[in-house]
Specification:
This protein is α/β, with parallel strands linked by helices. It has helices spanning 2-8, 19-30, 54-62; strands at residues 14-17, 42-47, 69-74. Helix 2 (19-30) links the parallel strand 1 (14-17) and strand 2. The chain is globular. It comes from Arabis alpina. This is FBD domain-containing protein.
Length: 87
């Protein structure tokens, strides 16, 4: 479901990724699921810079060859839950 959603976003010029989707993308990287190249030119990343979001952030940036503007909004790590907790 998430991959289908991401596939539909490959041609948008302006996009915002929040911490939850960054965590999902990080998990996909762990599973070796390929991330599509996106044509975004203006990207906003909302992140707590947690180790659960960092791989996803890197993947998004590596797969955004047309990126012209990057905006990063940081937030507190405390309110976010560890997505791997309880596994």
């Amino acid at each position: 479901m998430v991959l289908k959603m991401l596939d539909k976003l490959t041609n948008v010029e302006k996009l915002t990724f929040g911490p939850n989707i960054l965590q999902v993308i990080s998990f996909f990287e762990f599973l070796h699921v390929p991330f599509p190249s996106i044509k975004v030119k203006d990207l906003t990343v909302e992140t707590s810079m947690s180790p659960f979001e960092t791989p996803g952030t890197i993947i998004v940036l590596q797969n955004s060859p047309n990126l012209k503007k990057l905006t990063v909004h940081t937030m507190d790590f405390a309110p976010l839950l560890n997505p791997l907790q309880g596994l």
